[in-house]
């Protein structure tokens, strides 16, 4: 790991000011000389590998604003402070009762030790675990723009079948993000240009020709909160994760589902897919295919087909299409049968 300067500001404005001094308007957060750190479970790992090489770390853990560490549940929805730990949110009684898909996604995301360290804001900004991104001897457009994508012709079993491009097929590996995009979450951010709200669906960018530009954030912006609007029928929701082993593994395919039902007929559906896409993936075509229909095996199958209609498999990951369909079908039917 290369040497770096370590900063511990006490308020958000100081943290933003430090980042602003050592970055420019053109810097991407993941490539900036000054980068923010909270739990450190992702950035510290990539610094050790030589993938991330910031000259300065701005530790957010001493920021005084108590709202950064609070979970507020109301009739308007839920607001998570950016520094709330994954474990706190997963174990929160009202989150488990009102938004089980959120609690499920956090509980299944990592080991207990990591959940106790990792912040919610850091979790949604985690970077891919693509082997070619992590190993600096391989070409990777996300790590070194213009160098090529070794995964396309390499071993690509874990890679994305949705949202990829000729420049990048790296999978987004998070779980919590699938619940957030399904439930129309909003992210609050603050930087030198002021405070703003970002629809969670607009936060992450598909790779296109610029896979190194991963989010809509700029280098001196700090996420301060995540809000999920009130959705009373989100009590009928779950997150299903399929992986190579049951303990501490990333998804091969996953589905976040929330259903508004009249008997077995679908009034509204929210669906997001994980493990199969380059970004948190809202399956809107699948949602639309269910509207006004009785949810049974036939309509669940049709929804799954719609969700993967534009999938583009590579040599080793074609199995993800069928696995993803079966995962979504199972999640839909299990959500339908929940007792709420």
Automatic annotation (TrEMBL):
<dbReference type="InterPro" id="IPR005107">
    <property type="entry name" value="CO_DH_flav_C"/>
</dbReference>
<dbReference type="InterPro" id="IPR016166">
    <property type="entry name" value="FAD-bd_PCMH"/>
</dbReference>
<protein>
    <submittedName>
        <fullName>Xanthine dehydrogenase family protein subunit M</fullName>
    </submittedName>
</protein>
<dbReference type="Pfam" id="PF03450">
    <property type="entry name" value="CO_deh_flav_C"/>
</dbReference>
<keyword id="KW-0285">Flavoprotein</keyword>
<dbReference type="InterPro" id="IPR036683">
    <property type="entry name" value="CO_DH_flav_C_dom_sf"/>
</dbReference>
<dbReference type="InterPro" id="IPR051312">
    <property type="entry name" value="Diverse_Substr_Oxidored"/>
</dbReference>
<dbReference type="InterPro" id="IPR016169">
    <property type="entry name" value="FAD-bd_PCMH_sub2"/>
</dbReference>
<feature type="domain" description="FAD-binding PCMH-type">
    <location>
        <begin position="1"/>
        <end position="233"/>
    </location>
</feature>
<dbReference type="Pfam" id="PF00941">
    <property type="entry name" value="FAD_binding_5"/>
</dbReference>
<keyword id="KW-0274">FAD</keyword>
<dbReference type="InterPro" id="IPR036318">
    <property type="entry name" value="FAD-bd_PCMH-like_sf"/>
</dbReference>
<dbReference type="InterPro" id="IPR016167">
    <property type="entry name" value="FAD-bd_PCMH_sub1"/>
</dbReference>
<dbReference type="InterPro" id="IPR002346">
    <property type="entry name" value="Mopterin_DH_FAD-bd"/>
</dbReference>
